[in-house]
Amino acid sequence: MTTRTPLAGPSVWQGQDIKDSRRWIRDLTPEAIDELDAAVKSVRGMPWSEITREDFRLPLLGDLLDDVSDELENGCGIVKLRGFPVEGYSEDELRQMYFGLGTHLGTPVFQNRSGEMMRAIRDEGAHVGRTYGQTEGPDKGTTFLSSYARTLTNGALRFHTDRTDVVGLLCVHQARAGGTSKLASTPAIHNAILARRPDLLDVLFEDFWRSRFGEESTDKETVYKLPIFGLRDGKFTSHYSLTFIEAAELVPGVPKLTDLQREAIAMLMATAEELCFEMTLAPGDLQLINSHVTYHGRTPFEDDDSAGMSRMLLRLWLTTHYNRALPPGHEVLWREIEAGRPRGGIAQTNG
Fold first, then answer.
1. How wide is the angle at C-alpha 46 spanned by C-alphas 43 and 52, nearest 5°?
2. For position 351, what pLDDT does the model report?
3. Which of 42, 166, 322, 326 could be disulfide-bonded to 330 (CB atoms 3.0-4.6 Å)?
4. Spans in the chain with pLDDT lower than 50
5. How do residues 172-195 score in pLDDT, each as one tens digit?
6. Range of 19's domain?
7. Domain for residue 5, yes or no?
8. How far apart are CA 317 and CA 306, in angstroms?
9. Does some domain include residue 4?
10. How many structural domains are present in the chain?
11. pLDDT score at 88
């Protein structure tokens, strides 16, 4: 019999309740947009990846960004910041603006082993597997795409978390159809499974084998163990991507998932779908999510290049000074588990 208890607080929400709320919506005022424009002009000629918080001064936006940070860590864990001025700027200027703003919310961290700090999320075509990682699938003649490659297709993405405290997705262009963001509260998923199958909840707090194949490694045999759910000092965390678990199962010598583990994952995914809501992103919308308490995914999409409707989002991964402590053992993924410490992202091994 489990001794676990329900989680409480504003990060525990159900999609049907929060979808019509304005709690997670913030709007940029004309004065704030003017300040962003002035900040971009002040860093003209500077490489966007070298911009610091001191370079990109935003005194008028200070209170709003403090409020956003508090909502991400202590509130519902999601924010949509609307009105980002994506029109009238070059892509490089947009990157300057977005990166500069990001330095006021956290510290950008690397998103892959080649040192990329900002990823353009779009359909890059049929070559993504060859470019970003693919291997032989579990059945003869099949191909298994890495999570890195899947992100850069127009296909659906299953619920997952990224390896960072906060994920930012700035919508620059939207597709002709589809590409809707799907979000679910992981503390709410925890509570629902506790109520229905507490035995499976206990399984999710146990180790699952994962592979670093994709963003971190070209070799699927670089594996590690980590629970899907964790709890420390009353603060919850979940790190989950079924793709990394499936990749580990392809490695000789790595134990296959047990029947209970498979059942727990199936309930996790079904519950996420049940409790999620869909967030539509329009050009100029910036979605920010706390990875510890939120799963995100997307629906498939269709571009129309001739009409200028080709989906493109700019992604930042941020480590934050207000982040939570993580359970012992999570160092294998995060490297640092104490509260308020820089962590996450992809370690750089090539200097």
1. 70
2. 47
3. 326
4. 351
5. 999 999 999 999 999 999 999 999
6. 15-334
7. no
8. 31
9. no
10. 1
11. 87
